[in-house]
Amino acid sequence: MAAAMFLFGAFASALGAILLAESAEDRMLRLGFALAACVVAALLVVLPWERGRLKYFALVVPVAFLFIYFYELLVGFSPYTYPLTFVFVYVWVGLVLPRWAPLALFPLMVLTYVAPKLDDIAALQAGVVALPTCLLVGEGISFAMNLLRGYQDEFRQQAEIFRRVALAARRINSLDSQDVMDEIVEACRELGFDAASMIRLQSGGQEVKVTSLSGMPESILEASLSLDRGIARRVLNKGHGVSWYRDQIEQEGCPLLQESDFGAVHAEPVFIGDDVAAILFVGRLNSSAVSVEGRAALETLALEAGAALSNAEHYTLERLQALEYRNQSERDPLTGLANRRLADTVLPQVAPDDAVLLIDLDHFKWVNDSFGHDGGDKVLISLAEFLRAELREGDIPFRVGARNS
């Protein structure tokens, strides 16, 4: 934009050389200013000025005022265009430079305007109106641009926060509860918090256990903490997120925060169904409040955590049920020993150095006939317990006999 300002000045000066020059000398002066403005514009394009606005502040504006001063001194503006050049520069100042830059540059603008007009009373009188007008225009534009930059920064921050939340949501697509909690904690740290943890409820909601943490003392990991007070209790009572700051942290005496030095903390409930199953906790060492965007991100993470934990728990339950069904299908229901079905799977895998021992109970039919099937069952159960107690680890006892065996 700075280069465009000088290019516009170069174009205006060159156009004046063609249309307004009154002599060859006047034409050469105008073309010289146009060429100089082009050189400055080229430097602004080539050199890394965008690395800091202080360079604009220190160099570009004074250079522009020098062009105006010498052009007025050597060539001369019309009475109407002279004030407009300052308005033009101040529009650029308001668009590009930080807040209050137009006010800071106002003395330099006054000096530039007045210096070549000391003997022109009419121009000085016009400056009484023109210069404050320039200041108002520049400050008005600067104020609007400052608001716009603030909104842009806010939108960028929001976009970055929700980008991280979206990445975390993809990462927690795990069927392991611990992996889910670890990923949520890591996502909170990536949002800029100094510490984070996941806390699971236990004992019917009377205690909590820290199951995953980052940036907090390892001594509280897996420790069961009372829920009679503290931020976790407050979250359970309210059913929504809670923020505390240093004074309240010290007053409440939260068990979770006994060894911490947080200036601000926030806790968010993690629901599975209608019940609070866990609490997502974050902390900052300074006392800056958690922003609206930050709270929204934590709420989203808590929702994702609840869904992921629910899926993980359902998967774990189904896996345990599948293992139980498999165990039942491969176990003799009376003795608990492996049954014929499992034997048919294992025996074909017997290697040359392995051994297979067959045990037959003598007179077992007589036991059943004499004492009934209850008596026979007791014999089989006693034998199974003996085999389990005496066999080595890795040995597998089977019950493969038919009826009455």
From TrEMBL:
GO terms for cellular component: plasma membrane. The keyword Cytoplasm does not apply. This is diguanylate cyclase. It comes from Natronospira elongata. Keywords: Membrane, Nucleotidyltransferase, Transferase, Transmembrane, Transmembrane helix. Gene3D superfamilies: 3.30.450.40, 3.30.70.270. It holds the Pfam family GGDEF. GO terms for biological process: cell adhesion involved in single-species biofilm formation; negative regulation of bacterial-type flagellum-dependent cell motility. It catalyses: 2 GTP = 3',3'-c-di-GMP + 2 diphosphate. Residues 352-405 form the GGDEF domain. It is an enzyme of class 2 (transferase). InterPro entries: Diguanylate_Cyclase, GAF, GAF-like_dom_sf, GGDEF_dom, Nucleotide_cyclase, Rev_trsase/Diguanyl_cyclase.
